[in-house]
C-alpha cells in the first residue's frame, strides 16, 4: 500500500514519521444512483486517529451530497461521481482543521468537548490546546457523536498505585536488611569467648545461621563482577599464516568477488607452472641462483614493478609465454562485469601477466570498447578505475595511460574526442600537466600530421595559455 505524509506542508519531507495510505476511490452505479466508494477510508481514519464517520460526513458537508458510513462493513459512500484528487484535497482541509495541532503542526491530537459544548484539540507532543472553529457543519455532527473516550485510564491509575505500593514495600525490605546486617556486625564484635572452643562453636553457628543467608547487596555484586573482569585479561594473538590470510579474505569479501580473485590467482599459478615445465625454467615469481648472480654482476638489480625489458619480451614471445591482448582485455572485462571495484583493481592487475603498457591498453579497451559517441562522458564515469590503475602502476603510469588513449584512437581511426578526454582527466586530477605536455611533444615530433595531434592541439594551447596568464597575474 502506497503511503504519504500526513499534511500537505510535509509532503516533501522524506524523514517525516507520520504516514497515511493514499486514497483509493471507486465509482459505483449509474444514472441517479451513482456513488463514490472510498475503498480505504478505514485505514485512512486509523492513521489519522479519527472515526471514519467524521471524514465521510465531512465530504458530504463540503460537496453538498449525501454521505453514509457503515460501521459493520466499513464502507464509506458519497453520492455522486467525484474525482480522487478532489476528495484528497478535501481530506487535507479536514486534517488541518481537525487533526493537526495549531501550535506545532503534529497530528498527535485528541478531540476534547468542553462543558460549554466547544471543540478543542489537545496535542500530545507539545501540550498546546487548539480551539476548533464552531461555524463548520461537521462540529454539530461531532457534538452529537462524540469520540470514544480512551479505555484503560482507570486501569492506568490502578497500575500506578500498585507500582507505588511495590516501591514502598521494596524500600521497607531494604531497611530491614540493613538492620539485620548491623545487628550481625554488633553481635560479632561484642561476643567475646573465654575459651577457644566456645568461640569456634559460636563462629560455626553464625556461619550456619539464617541471618547470614541474606541476599547480597548491589555493592557486593559489583565487586564480584569487577573481580571476574580482572580474570578475563588474556593476551590474544592473530594467525599470520597464508592459509589464515586467505580465510580472512574470503570472509571479508563477498562470495562472488572472493571466488573471482581466487580463480584468477589459481589460473595464473597453473599457467606459470605449465609454461615452466614446458620450457624447463623456474615458475613465475621464482628467481634462479644463476639469474641472481648475473644480475649482481651486471649491477642491474631487480626490474621495477610492472616493467618488462625488451629482451625479456622477445624471449617470452619466442617461447609463447606472453598473453594476447584480446585475452587480457576479455579477462579484465569479465572481472569488471562481475563487480570488481576500483580498490580491488590493483591486485587484479598485479596477478595478470604482461608489461605495464599492455595492462593499461587492455584496461582501457575493456572499459571503453564499443563506445563510439560520448566517450568523454564514459571516461568521466569510470575515472576511478583509471586513477586506481595509475596508482598501482606507479612511476610513469600517466604516460602509459596517454599511450593507451593514443592506441585506442589509432585503432578506431577517429580522434575527435581526444581533447575532451584529456580535459576531463585533467579536471579529475587523473592526468597532470607535465605528463600531458611531454606526451604531446613526443607525439608531435614523431608525426605532426596525425589526427590525434590536430584533435589534442586546442587543449594543449589552452594549457599553455592558462600557464602564461597565471604567470602574468
UniProtKB/TrEMBL annotation:
Residues 309-473 form the W2 domain. The keyword Protein biosynthesis applies. Residues 189-200 have a biased composition (Low complexity). It holds the Pfam family eIF-5_eIF-2B. Gene3D superfamilies: 1.25.40.180, 2.20.25.350, 3.30.30.170. SUPFAM superfamilies: ARM repeat (SSF48371), Translation initiation factor 2 beta, aIF2beta, N-terminal domain (SSF100966), Zinc-binding domain of translation initiation factor 2 beta (SSF75689). GO terms for molecular function: eukaryotic initiation factor eIF2 binding; GDP-dissociation inhibitor activity; GTP binding; translation initiation factor activity. Coiled coil: none annotated. Residues 144-251, 271-328 are annotated as: Disordered. Keywords: GTP-binding, Initiation factor, Nucleotide-binding, Protein biosynthesis. Catalyzes the hydrolysis of GTP bound to the 40S ribosomal initiation complex (40S.mRNA.Met-tRNA[F].eIF-2.GTP) with the subsequent joining of a 60S ribosomal subunit resulting in the release of eIF-2 and the guanine nucleotide. The subsequent joining of a 60S ribosomal subunit results in the formation of a functional 80S initiation complex (80S.mRNA.Met-tRNA[F]). Belongs to the eIF-2-beta/eIF-5 family. This is W2 domain-containing protein.
Amino acid at each position: 500500500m502506497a503511503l504519504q505524509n500526513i499534511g500537505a506542508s510535509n509532503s516533501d519531507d522524506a524523514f517525516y514519521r507520520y504516514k497515511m495510505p493514499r486514497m483509493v476511490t471507486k465509482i459505483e452505479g449509474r444514472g441517479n444512483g451513482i456513488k463514490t466508494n472510498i475503498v480505504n477510508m478505514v485505514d485512512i481514519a486509523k492513521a489519522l486517529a479519527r472515526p471514519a464517520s467524521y471524514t465521510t460526513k465531512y465530504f458530504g458537508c463540503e460537496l453538498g451530497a449525501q454521505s453514509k458510513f457503515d460501521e459493520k462493513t466499513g464502507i464509506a459512500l458519497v453520492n455522486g461521481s467525484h474525482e480522487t484528487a478532489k476528495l484528497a484535497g478535501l481530506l487535507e482541509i479536514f486534517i488541518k482543521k481537525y487533526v493537526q495541532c495549531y501550535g506545532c503542526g503534529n497530528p498527535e491530537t485528541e478531540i476534547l468537548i468542553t462543558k460549554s459544548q466547544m471543540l478543542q484539540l489537545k496535542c500530545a507532543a507539545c501540550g498546546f490546546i487548539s480551539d476548533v472553529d464552531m461555524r463548520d457543519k461537521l462540529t454539530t455532527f461531532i457534538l452529537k457523536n462524540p469520540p470514544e473516550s480512551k479505555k484503560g485510564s482507570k486501569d492506568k491509575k490502578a497500575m500506578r498505585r500498585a507500582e507505588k505500593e511495590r516501591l514502598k514495600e521494596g524500600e521497607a525490605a531494604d531497611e530491614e536488611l540493613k538492620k539485620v546486617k548491623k545487628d550481625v556486625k554488633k553481635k560479632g564484635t561484642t561476643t567475646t569467648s573465654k575459651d577457644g572452643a566456645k568461640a569456634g562453636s559460636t563462629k560455626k553457628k553464625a556461619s550456619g545461621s539464617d541471618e547470614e543467608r541474606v541476599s547480597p547487596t548491589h555493592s557486593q555484586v559489583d565487586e564480584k563482577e569487577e573481580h571476574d573482569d580482572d580474570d578475563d585479561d588474556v593476551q590474544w594473538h592473530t594467525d599470520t599464516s597464508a592459509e589464515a590470510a586467505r580465510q580472512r579474505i574470503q570472509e571479508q569479501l563477498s562470495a562472488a568477488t572472493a571466488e573471482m580473485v581466487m580463480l584468477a590467482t589459481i589460473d595464473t599459478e597453473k599457467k606459470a607452472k605449465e609454461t615452466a615445465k614446458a620450457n624447463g625454467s623456474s615458475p613465475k615469481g621464482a628467481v634462479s641462483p644463476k639469474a641472481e648472480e648475473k644480475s649482481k654482476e651486471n649491477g642491474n638489480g631487480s626490474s621495477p614493478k610492472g616493467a618488462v625489458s625488451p629482451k625479456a619480451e622477445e624471449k617470452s614471445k619466442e617461447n609463447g609465454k606472453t598473453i594476447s591482448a584480446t585475452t587480457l582485455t576479455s579477462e579484465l572485462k569479465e572481472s569488471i562485469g562481475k563487480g570488481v571495484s576500483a580498490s580491488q583493481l590493483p591486485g587484479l592487475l598485479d596477478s595478470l601477466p604482461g608489461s605495464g603498457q599492455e595492462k593499461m591498453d587492455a584496461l582501457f579497451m575493456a572499459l571503453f570498447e564499443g563506445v563510439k559517441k560520448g566517450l568523454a562522458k564514459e571516461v568521466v564515469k569510470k575515472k576511478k578505475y583509471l586513477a586506481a590503475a595509475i596508482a598501482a602502476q606507479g612511476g610513469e603510469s600517466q604516460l602509459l595511460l596517454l599511450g593507451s588513449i593514443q592506441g585506442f584512437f589509432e585503432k578506431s581511426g577517429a580522434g575527435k574526442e581526444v581533447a575532451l578526454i584529456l580535459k576531463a582527466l585533467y579536471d579529475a586530477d587523473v592526468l597532470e600537466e607535465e605528463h600531458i605536455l611531454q606526451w604531446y611533444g613526443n607525439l608531435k615530433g614523431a608525426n605532426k600530421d596525425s589526427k590525434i595531434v590536430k584533435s589534442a592541439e586546442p587543449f594543449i594551447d589552452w594549457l599553455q595559455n592558462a600557464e602564461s596568464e597565471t604567470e602574468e597575474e
